[in-house]
């Protein structure tokens, strides 16, 4: 039996013991929650051992694995307890707990024969800053009105370090390596996702007078946190789209899926002042439709035809796709502000045009656009339009 297999079995046994402890506690001492927490801790430790599978052999890599395990366990303890509440304590914990994830990410993303020391150091520094941002978010109730200043400062430092990491990767990359495959771009994506998700979750859990956790100002200055969250969300969306697979249809599906991150956009006084809970998903829906329309036009046969039939088919497809744009415009108005920008007859007229689009489309993306147009048109007709049957006055 290998050492990693033994670690996996030990982790599985620890999880089983944790489950048994929770079952026994619920039956015999349901009022004692400390025993339940012990069972949850056992399940978590088992998962950590199964994921990392640290070796028992006395090697440097084995020592690194065990440090990883203790770092994860310590991070969870810091999160669920009030042992760390001050910003200086958060910085010290982040400087210790963020080193192993950064080193692990560096050795996984960089090629084995070309791991630059500068890249590893910048990844470890970025990991420490990301850990600090996450801990600041978790300990926001303790930081109170200093949270905004601390969060903006750490986000600015992380942005500068990420840019330096990109410059370092460009300087040390191999000649045949493409720009979009640089590991530092994944670092930028991770950093913006962390900032975006943390600020969105912070906005959703508003408690009393602690949030938006800004300092008291006499000049009624608009908080910067929502704007920073929206900018980080948009950058995350762009980065995910740039890392999409090269295959045509899978690329379009990937980009549509990337629009899910736009639910992290926040209402602010600078960019999205009309954003509300009821129209939070509008950006995702309309962006997906825009991606389908753009991709269908780009992949049409009209740009690369070999016969007159392909040219005629491409022209027909182009016209049908252009007719779907007013439908998207109307849908955007109804979803975002519940306002009908154009006449409802436009939707009724463009609905049947989606069926020939299925026949004349030259890509799977066009089929997806046609199906989306049919579904959205039917939804608007039944849910938003007060359609009345025709009655002759005579």
From TrEMBL:
Keywords: Membrane, Transmembrane, Transmembrane helix
Source domain of life: Eukaryota
Transmembrane segments: 6-23, 35-54, 60-80, 87-109, 115-138, 150-172, 184-203, 224-243, 311-332, 339-360, 366-387
Keyword Transmembrane: yes
Membrane keyword on record: yes
Designated name of the protein: Uncharacterized protein
UniProt source species: Mytilus coruscus
Organism placement in taxonomy: Eukaryota, Metazoa, Spiralia, Lophotrochozoa, Mollusca
